[in-house]
């Protein structure tokens, strides 16, 4: 990762849903099992899916069904999750 040395938030943007429409075949969703920062597993309480993505986070990971963003809140100092 380049840019900010100690970010407070990391955002993952999902921008290629490619949904075909009601009753038409074809859809693309994003499923994230887990996220690690500096080798540390990020707890699900620090994962936030925006309303636009129509997604959620539960014990199996994060699901995003339409274009949107998943933000991961810090701090991101090794061992300080």
Summarize the structure in words.
The chain is mainly beta. The chain is built from no helices and eight strands. It has strands at residues 9-14, 30-32, 36-37, 40-41, 47-49, 56-58, 61-64, 68-73. The strands form three sheets. A three-stranded antiparallel sheet has the order 1-8-5, with no helix packed on it. A three-stranded antiparallel sheet has the order 2-7-6, with no helix packed on it. It has a two-stranded antiparallel ribbon with strand order 3-4.
Supply the number of helical segments: 0
Number of β-strand runs: 8
Order of the strands making up the biggest sheet: 1-8-5
The main β sheet shows up as:
3 strands, antiparallel
Q: What is the H/E order? A: EEEEEEEE
What is the averaged pLDDT score? 84
Low-confidence stretches: none
Per the principal axes of the C-alpha atoms, what is the gross shape?
elongated
N-to-C span? 18 Å
Helix content: under 10%
Gyration radius, rounded: 14 Å
The secondary structure category is mainly beta
| Percentage of β-strand residues | 35-45%
């Amino acid at each position: 990762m380049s840019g900010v040395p100690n970010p407070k938030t990391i955002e993952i943007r999902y921008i290629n849903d490619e949904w075909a429409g009601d009753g038409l075949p074809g859809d693309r969703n994003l499923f994230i099992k887990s996220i690690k920062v500096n080798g540390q597993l990020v707890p699900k309480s620090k994962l936030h899916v925006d309303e636009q993505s129509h997604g959620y986070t539960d014990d199996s990971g994060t699901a995003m069904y339409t274009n949107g963003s998943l933000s991961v809140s810090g701090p991101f100092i090794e061992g300080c999750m």
